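Sequence in, structure out. First:
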Amino acid sequence: MFIELIKFNLSSSYFVHRGNFYCQKSGTAMGNPLSPALADLVMETLLDHVLEGIDIPIPFLKKYVDDLITALPIDMIEHVRNALNEFNSHIQFTCEMENNNQLPYLDMLLIRTAQQKIVTDWYKKPVASGRILNYFSFHPLTQKLNTATGFIGRVFKLSTCRSENEKKELVRDYLLNNNYSSSLINRLINRYINKNTNTHESNSSTHPEPKMYRSLHHVEKLTPALAKVINRNFPNVQLGFKCVKTNRLLFSKLKDATPQLEKRNVIYRIPCADCDCAYIGLTTQQLKNRLSGHRSLINRYADLKSSDPNRATEREEEFKKTALMVHVIENEHRFDLPGTKILEQDNRLNALQVLEMCHIFCDTKTVNYRTDTSNLSVVYSGLLHSITNGQR
């Protein structure tokens, strides 16, 4: 059953480009969350199969996803590489051998000394730009500090062949080139050293409250203030921050955009054709299906009214399923369904419900019931009230 699910997943990946549908021929799509797990399973299967047919002892073999490091006799290197490449024509390995007693692996350089011992050094590829998260980039300060601290940790842990002063100089040069100040670099280095030299195990027997993880969009000055309030009042909530200015904004969209009427999980606004009012609604299905439901209800009522006005009057309450229909029946107005606009889109239902209430609250011309915003938090109400008053 598991294999059948995997096959279904791999055979049903597709995307639309210029109106044409394309299916993934082999492997998984880039960004598919299943890819890392499958890559690891495939590599384990590959190694188990290949190593069975190799009749020489291999002193060690380490793997990180598809990167391998091992030790082999020189005359067996090509034999082993060919055995690996024969497993599957889509999986082909290249080989990098020890040069001048050095061999890079991931971001670490292994160095064989004259005493036949292995020391390591932090390694970057010759084509590396030397860029990490720049200090002046539009990201939360915590992310910049964590990036710099992570880099310091890698250099200090991996550079066993350097003195502490050499490690510090390497870190300073790298971070200075990414606009981190000297004073900040020194504080981060000292904090890292102190933390790793004065570690104490906690003997607390209390069980900490389970963590809850939430994310916030990074808005300069506003987000740090909100984070302080949340951390003070909800210590069990772990916050993450999302940058709104991403590289995606710099590049044109290669995939076709989803047509407006085929979008799901949206807040939409339908204007009235006979007055300035509008109806604001939420749907998790395709917008065209929701509009079709509105159109069907309006047409059924109109047909009944034209054929039997008395019967239509008697059954009015059956048709008043939404504020839109109440406006149609009580005012005899028509809604411009083709003029519908999408106000928001979000895959989180809770977020959509809050957004719908916010839009209804801010729109003074909406036909929606005022009770539709009764569940809106007073925090949002006060903020939206200030915004709407400021706009006026």
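Second:
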Amino acid sequence: MKDLMKLSPSTSQFLVSLAYFPWSIKPIYGILSDCIPIKQRKRVPYLIISSCLSLLPWLILGLSQTLRTSANMLTSLLIVQNMGSAMADVVIDAMVAEAVRLAGPVFAGDLQSLSWSSMAVGGIFGSLLGGYALSNLPIHVIYVVFSTLPFFQLVSCMFVEDSPKRFQSAIDEHNNQSSVTAFSEEGSGEALGKEGTRRRKGTRKNNKRRSLSKQTEANEKPNGSFNSSPCLSLKSAFFSLCTAFKQPAILRPMAWFFFSNVTIPNISTVMFYYQTEELHLEASFLGTARVIGWFSLILGTYTYNRYFKHKKLRDILVFAHVGLAIISLLDIALVLRLHIPHGIGDKYMVLWGSALADAINQFKMMPFLILSGQLCPPGIEGTLFALFMSINNLGSTLGSFLGAALASALNISTAQFDNLALGLGVQLIGTLLPIGFLFLVPNEVTGLTS
């Protein structure tokens, strides 16, 4: 976008934000995988579909010079590619949510840490590959290389367990358990720790109702097929989502996470322009620098799980946003060249800023992920967890659009970065604003949510 299409920073920021929009509609993928099985399988078919959606755009861009030099076509193909990535992410999130629910709160942090650490290891290798490719390969070859990675993902689907018997058990559990009752109990404003007590009471109260439900289902499904009534499953999933979100213990924290992302104007693409055009840092260096960020993500995940998960959630989120504000100060110092008199190079400022940002972000994401995973009722893990994540992603996307508007309003261009420090100052203020709305998060909730 910068070198070949000569797009402005604000235009690139807008198109990148648009390309990532599929991550904001993840509940659609969750409803599909939860409620509309393919050949009685809920996960593997959608992993295959998502892998193909991720593979084809890179391959097309690698083979067609016309498409990769058109901003509109490039953005459209990137939207399709992100749709495939987001769908795969939903399926994996659902499987992790199932594991979290079965393992219980004691191991919830460990499972999420394992998931994120695995992703970080992949990110390290991906960043090294990206840095090498930018330095040594032409762009069309890079696209073709990128298409081989979703191909490996496609092959890995053969090793994912998703048998019809397991699907049958999951549907039975969803139909027989009173998860909706648990989420629609009175007294919803109480602490999350009391939710389990109400859930157990609701379960005992409805034991007879379950037996009647089993008999009714046996009479109504002579073929034993769950594909015959997908509309009922969709209605059940939608009703479960609505009743779940009536709970202030769910609605209020999710509203805060959404607000905390919307208020922060994301100008990362603008910073990329500044670092490459003004500081003359190579794009390959910035790609390889992500390795430091991924290592920091692992460190942040371990530190949270080891020392912070028993702390109050409000305290953890205050720490995270103050830390992110400090990162904005480092960016301001970089733009104002305040580090030069101290003999600190630009590369070190960029590396440390990226590393600290990724580590601190984990202190905001980990409790959000664990809280979301434990609140997912059986049978619609993919849908509800995807909805939680979409709220977070939609807030980030809107924050990115806000960043594009801010860059345009400040007249930041490839040759004009005089107002970039002012834009970073606005970002700093936006980072601190959510702290004043932490009353939306229940005071008694901890990072472990147990």
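Remark: The two ends are 46 Å apart (CA to CA).
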